Amino acid sequence: MSFRERVKKEILVIDGAMGTLLQQRGLPPGWCPEEWNLSRPESVQEVHKLYLEAGADIITTNTFGAIQLKLADYGLGHRVREINLAAANLAKEAARPYGAMVAGSVGPLGKFLQPLGTMTFDEAYGQFFEQCRALVEAGVDFILFETFGDIGEMRAALIAAADAGDVPVVASFTFDETGRTFTGTDPETAAVVVERLGVSAIGVNCSVGPRELVQVVQKLTQSTNLPVLVSPNAGMPEMVEGRTVFRETPAAMADYAVRFVEYGASVLGGCCGTTPEHIKAIHQSVKGLQPRVRSRQFGLRVASRVKTVSIAPRGIPVAIGERLNPTGKKALQAEIKEGKTEITRRDALAQVEAGAAILDINVGVGGVDQVAAMERAIHAVQVLVDAPLCIDSTDPRVIEQALKIYHGKAIINSVNGEEKSLQTILPLAKRYGAALIGLTLDERGIPPTAEERLAVARKLTERAEAMGIPRQDLMIDCLVLTVSAQPEGVPETLRAITLVKKELGLTTSLGVSNVSFGLPNRGLINAAFFAMALAAGLDAAILNPQEPRMMETLRASAVLTGRDIRAEQYIAREQQAGGVQAPAKPVEQAAATPLEILYQAVLSGDKDNIVSYIETALAEGLSPMELLDKALIPGIEEVGRRYGAGLYFLPQLMMAGETMTRSFERLRPELARGPAKKVGTVVLATVKGDIHDIGKNIVSVMLANHGFEVIDLGKNVDNEEIIKAAMEHRAQIIGLSALMTTTMVHMADLINRVKEQGLNCKVMVGGAAVTAQYAREIGADGYAVDAVEAVSVAKSLVS
Amino acid sequence: MLLPQIPVEIQHQQVLGCLGATGKQRIDRDLLDQVNEMILLGKSLLQPAAAVAQVRVSPAGDTVYLSGAAFHLPDLSQWLKGCSVASVAAVTVGETIEKEVERLFHRGLATRAVILDAVGTAAAEGAANQVVKLLARQMRIRGLFPTPRLGPGYRGLKMDYLPLFLEMAGGEQIAVTCNNFFQMNPVKSLCFMVGWSSEQQKEQVKCDFCHQANCQFRAVRTEGESGVVF
Q: Which residues from chain B sit within 8 angstroms of residue A712, using beta carbons?
């Protein structure tokens, strides 16, 4: 009986640690364990026999690191096939008398794939393919990918294994105490991604002990109907006298094994620290138990590296963000041409923020290498947002590259009923484990009636299933025509949605905004049609989530169609939107005088309204100087006081500063006609070698808002240039900033030069590493701890 | 090891903390909107990357050898006590964000500029945390825990060591350099080391690099997953 058959019918016990037992047999530290398949075969076989005697139904080959990349560290990179064949033959020979099965062990590469690391998908694929081919050639019963912490790497491994031969494959991940893998994948997402890549079972091994794996195993068994393997370490590792030890007893491991069977696991074993005694105890406790049959119905599930999104026929409808599409967007087109991803990243974040559950990505710009452009976009977006992606292209090469590098289960947008599309797109979905949007059109175009569209959907379903793609991974787009041109088309689309769901049990999606093309106020038409489509049973829509009306329609319709049970999500969202804790800006008292209003506007940093308040005050006969002296300056001084007292923080200081800047801009013409009001001139710079100038910039804003003329020379400025500017502008003050002790030495040098040249100019200093004591030591005229103090110091220096 | 893109979480509270918020301030909705907007903008501008190298640690009295290079630093030797291996990392969020900060200042949008600058600082810290977490999860399998972050300019380690640390980490792979005054470029970058020890360190770390009493990095940190940003 094959592994695929046995694993469904009986509880299987798999062996425990190999490395520890080889070390007990003399494997020297730093020696390649896999090399012993060649030089010490009797020791490897002895370990196999110990586990078989203990009751293991499955033993794993000593090939965890027998991959070119790792063997190369020992100068054995050219002996991958030889070592794997030898290991598999040793295991098979040992297993034969016991009727046991042999799992070909394959471990991770130890390098991260792009975009987290530098290794490409193709490089990883090549590594895994070579090892898997050798194991298949040797005739292992199945390949066990174990201790994988990165879902992207597991995808490459599984695709390579599928190409290496027709052999069952088990994908086993390592999760930590947080219940996620190294790169953040949770058990459900791991299951969703690998289920479609042809695995016969999904597993969890290593990392932690059985106690810490309880929740992971529960989640895993609830997330898949596939058999589940559980091979924990013998407890959490501890270091004792320089050696790693594991303290979980065989009896405790066996107790947990029974619990794992109850949750639904059917292959039980151990990893680091487990011995034949542990395996024997597990065997005695679980043999004779029956695997728990799980037959949970899952709808369409797609996933990013860290999150699963479910689209279910009765679940809450899902918004697929449409904005990562250059059609009609010149700036995005230009960005794609230039090879940048700034707008792409910004729009991705904004759409997820607005409620998109999935993001559609399209890079269709003429004259651009779209394969490279898609690669850039996928890499940029998949580390930025947790929403799964929908790969939108008509070019199979672009789709394939995207599916290779995406560390999740994507949706392909789209396949249709045309033979050419079926023949090119379905194999890609099958190979890379993607879901599909199926358009109800074929060689004859979009069929006019709902029944004909249903026929195309049926054809798509049959062809997908024949390819081995489960029907729940197909989402049908019944296509909507422009209502202004073909008003009869809208009811047919709505009917088709209902028919497809009823007759085929599939989920449906729709590009909503086509309906309103050519009409004014398109948003209104789109929202109304969207509500109707949701009432007809629509499950997902490709739309702009940043249009509030569309997202409101989605949320409200979910309640009205009974898909948001007890309106839970609707209520939660409304409470969130209405429950902002922050107080609004203080509203001016109706009876307040114009001067009081101006004063308050500076305090609250109301730069948007300050100019209109000034106009009102001027219209009431107040002079510009009065506004300045009686409202604005007192206002900014009060802001400074509050900042000093810790009642305001930096952005509030800056908001008040910006408000003052606008006030000065507005009043400049009037002030210019009156007597000069300049307090003094300050040349400001960050010293040579220092490239941090945020503090200096803040001081610059504050000085300007207190009537100083500021000559801001920027950062990393030579002392000579600073002195030259001070002379040229007849500055009363030179202000210097330095972040670190390594650069503040330039301050002393500048002060010496000022003195040597007899400049009538004071020097004030500040910056993170500068202290009052240091300022005194170097002979500075003033020192300020922050921007507010800098203003008063500057004023005192010019008075 | 090169990590060309690191997923970075930017916490709203952390950004406010970088800006000096202490909970005493009354923050109105307009300002909160600006903070949210800048976090969103900042995220789109981030290019977080890291270069990490593993070095052997061999203590010998007050001297500690890192991959053979001797450091006559009792403090460092003390911090790395019990560690046989350490990771030296250079982490950056790229220079786009600092250019945007400059641009905003030049346009007179000082509030947005200072907020975005804080977003960059929080992001650099977040990226470093992410790197340490990633390494910690791998090391945990071997029963090893990270020490607090150690870096040039901190805890007995002079800034002069920065070029050496950057070289050890492989900072040039992600275009992180430092000038003659040991200032890193891009500005929103960090270079640090964590040792790996079988004992989980409970000792608390408090940055005292500068005299800014309200700096968020004065806050107490533990276990290497948060620490000092320069």
A: none
φ and ψ at residue B55, rounded to 5 degrees: -125, 150
Give the pLDDT of residue B29.
81
Of the partner residues A182, A237, A238, the one whose CB lies closest to the CB of residue B138: A182
Report yes or no on B228 lying in a domain. no
The CA-based diameter of chain A, rounded to the nearest angstrom, is 107
CA–CA gap between residue B61 and residue A174 (Å, rounded): 38
- Sketch the domain layout of chain A as residue ranges: 3-286, 300-578, 594-673, 680-798
- For B173, the closest chain A residue by CA position comes to A118
Higher pLDDT, B52 or A673: B52
Residue A247: its pLDDT value, please?
80
Domain that holds residue B54: 2-218
Tens of pLDDT, residues A540-556? 999 999 999 999 999 99
Length of chain B equals 230
Its CATH class, for the domain covering A300-578, is: alpha beta
| pLDDT at residue B222 greater than cutoff 90 | no
Chain B residue whose CA is closest to A702: B110
Q: How close A639 gets to chain B, by Cα (Å)? A: 12
CB A284 within 8 A of CB A254: yes
Rounded Cα gap, residues A297 and A541, in angstroms: 23
Position B153 pLDDT exceeds 80: no
| pLDDT for residue B224 is more than 50 | no
Structural domain contains residue B223? no
pLDDT tens column, B195-218: 998 877 655 555 555 555 555 454
The class that CATH gives domain A3-286 is alpha beta
Residue whose entry in the numeric block shows the structure tokens 């009431």? A620
Count structural domains, chain B. 1
Give the 3-state secondary structure of residue A746: helix
Contacts of residue A410, defined as CB under 8 A and 6 or more positions apart, other chains included, come to: A302, A388, A389, A390, A391, A402, A403, A432, A434, A435
- Per-position DSSP letters for A577-638, written without gaps between them: HH---SPPPPPPPTT--HHHHHHHHHHHT-TTTHHHHHHHHHHTT--HHHHIIIIIHHHHHH
In a domain, B230, yes or no: no
Tokens for A420? 């050419």
Q: What is the pLDDT of residue A799?
A: 80
CB A537 within 8 A of CB A312: no
Q: Which residues of chain A have pLDDT under 50?
A: 579-589
Burial class (CB in 10 A: 0-12, 13-18, 19+), A193: buried
Give pLDDT, residue A87.
Answer: 98
CA distance A69 to chain B (A): 14
- Top CATH class of A680-798 equals alpha beta
Q: Coil, helix or strand for A415?
A: strand
With respect to residue B102, please indicate whether it lies within any of the assigned structural domains.
Answer: yes
Query: Do the domains A300-578 and A594-673 sit in the same CATH topology, yes or no?
Result: no
Q: Single out the residue of A154, A153, A142, A141 nearest to residue A195, CA to CA.
A: A154
Q: Would you say A478 is a known binding-site residue?
A: no
Task: Say what the pLDDT of residue B207 is.
Answer: 53
CATH number at residue B135: 3.40.109.40
